[in-house]
Amino acid sequence: MEMSTASYEMRISTIELKGRLDALEAVPLREALDAQLALGKYRIAVDLSKVSFVDSAGLAALVKGMKNARQKGGDLRLISPVAADALRVFELTRFDKVFTMTDTLADALVNW
Amino acid sequence: MTSSQLEVDPTFLAVRALGPWLAEVLEPLGTERATAAHGGVELAIHELATNIVDHAQSTFIRFTASVDGDQLNVSIIDDGQAFDTEKIVIPAADQPQVRGYGFMIIEALSLRLDYKRQTDLNVWETAFSV
Question: Domain spanning B3-129: which CATH class is it, in words?
Answer without folding.
Answer: alpha beta
